[in-house]
Amino acid sequence: MSKILIISGQFIPFTKSIGGILRVYSFIKLLKKKHDVFLLVSKPISNKNYGYLGLPRKDLSKVNINYISNKSPKITSSMFNYKLLRNIFYLLGFDYAFYLNRKYLEKCDDLIKKNNINYVIVSSPPFSLFYLVKEIKKRFKNAKIILDYRDGWSTRINNIFLFPFKYIVKTFIEKKILNYSDYIIAATFNIKSKVSSLVRNKKKIILIRNGFLSKPKKKQKKNKKIKIGYFGLISDDNSSYRNIRIIFDTIKKNKILQDKFIFEFYGNNDIQSESIKCFNSFKFKKNISYKNALSKMTEMDFLLIIHTEKSTSKEMVTSKFYDYLSSGSPIINISSGKNEAGEIIKKYNLGKNINYLEDDLSNFFENLKRNKKKLKWNKNLKIFNRDYQNKKLLKIIY
C-alpha cells in the first residue's frame, strides 16, 4: 500500500464545472481501493458549495481532502480571462492558483511529512501548480512525482504572435520542470506526442485518456424536430473557445433550418446577447446532475461539440466527448481546423466533423438527416472507459 497526494485546482463541492474534475475524481475512485489517498485543492473566491453534481459521494469516502481558501481579489480572476491576455497568462502560468502557490507548498510540505507520502500527482491546468514541483523534489527526494497533463501547456497554443512567450516557457520553464518528474501522464495523444519532444526519456510518458464513467440506459427518441443537445460551457464572446454565434448566425438566416432543428444547451452559459437568449430555435437549460445529463444525452438526435479557438484546436478532446460517445447518440464536431476528437469520430464512425472555417455550415445543416437506424455499440470503444484507461496508473504506483 502506498500513500498518494494528488494536487489539483478546484474540486467538488466547490466547483460548478464537472468536466474539469472528473479525471481527478476517477483517479481517486481507482487508487483508494488499494492505497491511502490525500487530495489538496483550492476553493473558489466565492466559497460557494455547488454540491456533488450527481457524482456518488461514497466514492470519496476515506479520502483525506484538504481545501485551500482563495482570498485573492476578484479582479485578478477576471483579468486572467481577458481576451487579449488570456493566452499569454496561460503560457506563463498566471492563473487563479498562482497567488496560492505558497499556501499549496506549505500544506503539501505538511501532508508529506506527517503521512510519509510516496507519490505526488500534480494535475493541471492550472499550470501554476507545476511550479511547485522543483521545491517538492528538493525537499522530498524519495517522493515519486507524476505530472498529469489534462491539457497541453506551452505546446497547446499555436499562435505566431505568442511565439516569444511560448519559446521562453517551453525552453526555460516547462523542460526543467519535466526533468524533476518521475512520470508524465497525458490525456490525449497529441499532448503526449508534443511533451515527448521536451524530454529525453520517452518511456516515462504514458497516455491515459479521459473516458466515460458508465454507459447510460438509452431512451427512445420522440422528437418532432431534430433535437441537437449541447452540454457544458457556452458563450457568445467572439474570442471564446466555444462561441455560439457560429450556430446562431447560420440558423437565424435560414427559416428552413429554424423549422427543422431545436438546440438545447445544458450547463453554464455566458450569453450576453438578448437576441440569442430569446431565439426560438435555442433552449437554454439550467445545470443538471451528471447522471441526469447522461440520461438527457440519449434523448438527443445529435450531440454537439464546438471549439472555435484556432490556436488551441488540434489537441482538443474534452471529457464531455467521452460522455457523448457512451450515450450512443451521433456527434457533430464543429471546430476551427482538425482536432483529435474528430479523428476518433472518423475512425469509429461516431458522427460528423465540420471545419467551420472551410465548410458551409448552412449547407451542412440543410443536408443533415435524423439517423433512423439504431447505432450498435462498438466493442472496440471499451478502451475509452475511464477504468480501462486509469488502470495504467497502477503500473507506476505500487
Give an account of the 3D structure.
This protein is α/β, with parallel strands linked by helices and 398 residues long. The chain has two domains: 3-213 and 385-395, Glycogen Phosphorylase B (Rossmann fold); 226-376, Rossmann fold (3-Layer(aba) Sandwich), CATH 3.40.50. It has 15 helices and 15 strands. It has helices spanning 22-31, 74-80, 86-92, 101-115, 133-139, 163-179, 189-196, 245-251, 255-260, 274-277, 290-297, 319-327, 340-348, 361-367, 386-390; strands spanning 3-7, 36-42, 64-68, 119-124, 144-149, 183-186, 205-207, 226-231, 234-235, 261-266, 269-270, 282-285, 302-307, 331-335, 351-355. The protein has a seven-stranded parallel sheet, with helices on both faces. Strands 12-10-8-13-14-15 form a six-stranded parallel sheet. Strand 4 (119-124), helix 5 (133-139) and strand 5 (144-149) form a beta-alpha-beta unit. The longest helix has 17 residues, at 163-179. It is globular, with a radius of gyration of 21 Å. The model has no long low-confidence stretch (mean pLDDT 90).
